[in-house]
Amino acid sequence: RAALDRAAVLLRIKRDVNRLDNVWGVGGGQRPVKHLVKEMNLLLREYLLSGEVSEAEHCLRELEVPHFHHELVYEAVVMVLEGSGEGPVDMMVTLLKVLWETGLVTLDQMNRGFQRVYEELGDISLDVPLAHSLLERLVELCFDRGIITKALRDACPAR
């Protein structure tokens, strides 16, 4: 009875999802999508600041959502398109390469992430006029480093 009362109180708290994660040990698949997207964005931003691939890899593993790694790929590519300069491009390609080589991001997840960017490129290019050329360059770089397949490279929308 005490445990049920405690659970009722905890569930009524309108705080962050992390509170329940800490108390109940909710796994990655039980977290709201918005929370996971926010976590992946934060992970990528921290990576761009620190440049620590191993830390980014550790954080991604800690999220425990291998079925959702396409979101990381999608967010990484969009971040490159919206960013400026060569630094973020090289860093994201390096991160994707490591995640690909370790098997943390599977072929299917990599394809789904890039396909989502391809589908939304029209909307993205409204905010970033050079999105098509940036994406073509990024896709070519990823292909050269063995991160994506020839079929995925060829599927890249051209202007």
UniProtKB/TrEMBL annotation:
| Main localization (coarse) | cytoplasm
Alphabetized Pfam families for the sequence? MA3
**Superkingdom in the source lineage:** Eukaryota
Signal peptide annotation? none
Keyword set, alphabetical order = Cytoplasm, Nucleus, Repeat
- PROSITE patterns annotated for this entry? MI (PS51366)
Checking Gene3D superfamilies in the record gives:
1.25.40.180
Q: Which GO cellular component terms are attached?
A: cytosol; nucleus
Q: Which GO terms describe its biological process?
A: negative regulation of DNA-templated transcription
Q: Where is the MI domain?
A: 35-158
Q: Which InterPro entries does the entry link to?
A: ARM-type_fold, Initiation_fac_eIF4g_MI, PDCD4
The listed locations are:
Cytoplasm
Q: Does the keyword Cell membrane apply?
A: no
* PANTHER family documented for this protein: PROGRAMMED CELL DEATH 4 (PTHR12626), PROGRAMMED CELL DEATH PROTEIN 4 (PTHR12626:SF4)
Query: Which family does the UniProt entry place this protein in?
Result: Belongs to the PDCD4 family.
Report what the protein is called.
PDCD4 protein
